[in-house]
Amino acid sequence: MDEIMQGAQDKMEKTIAALKTEYGAIRAGRANPAVLDKLRVDYYGTPTPINQMAAVAVAEARILTIQPWDVSTLHAIERVIQASEIGINPQNDGRVIRLIFPQLTEENRKNIARDIRKQAEEAKVSIRNTRRELMDKIKKMEKASEITEDDLKDYEKELQELTDRFVKEVDSVAAGKDKEIMEI
To answer: Cys-Cys crosslink for 31: which of 52, 64, 137, 177, Cβ 3.0 to 4.6 Å?
Structure first.
C-alpha cells in the first residue's frame, strides 16, 4: 500500500515541477532563457531546442543573446522566434540574435498574473484528480477485503494530508511568481 501512496506523491511532485517549468517560461520583463525552452527549430529534419543549437546568454537585464554554433541556422532560429508567442521581435546582426525584452505595462502584468492563477488552478485540479484516483483504488481494495475499514480511514486521512500539502505548495509557487510579475 505504501507504494501506492508513494506513487501518488510522485505524481503530485511532477505536477509541481511542471508548474514551475511553465512559470519559468513566462516572460517577466527581464531576460530569461527559459522563454525559449518550448521553441523547436527544424535542424536537418529534427525538431531541436534552441539551447542545443546555440549559446543562449543574458547580456543585460533585458537583453538575451543567441549565438548559434552553426551560423547557417541563424535565420531558422530567427523565424521560429518570430512565429512564437513570446511577443519579442528578434534582432539579427548576421552572427548573433538579440531579444530585447520590453518593460511590462500594468495591463500586461495583470494578464500574466491571471494566467499564473489559471495555471495554478489547473495544477490543483491535477493534484485533486490524483487524490480521487487513489481514493477509488483504496475503496475498491476495502470492498475486496484486501484492507480493513480502519486502514481505509487511515489512508484517506494520509492522502488528504498529502493533497493539502501539495495544494499549499502550488499556492506558494504561484504567489511567488505573481509577486515577481507585479514588482517588476
So the answer is: 64
**How far apart, in whole angstroms, are the C-alpha atoms of residue 33 and residue 80?**
15
Model pLDDT, residue 169? 94
CA distance 155 to 135: 8
Who's near 121: CB < 8 A, 6+ residues apart? none
State the DSSP code for 84: S
Q: Tell me what percent of the chain is helix, strand and coil, each rounded to the nearest 5.
A: 65, 15, 20
The answer to whether the beta carbons of residues 169 and 12 sit under 8 Å apart is: no
**Cα 156 from chain centroid (whole Å):** 29
Alpha-carbon separation of residue 147 from 4, 62, 77 (angstroms): 13, 58, 57
Confidence band for 4, pLDDT divided at 50, 70 and 90: confident
Q: Does 1 have pLDDT greater than 70?
A: no
Going along the chain, which residue ranges are E strands? Answer: 40-43, 46-49, 54-60, 63-68, 91-92, 97-100
Indicate the residue type of 44: Y
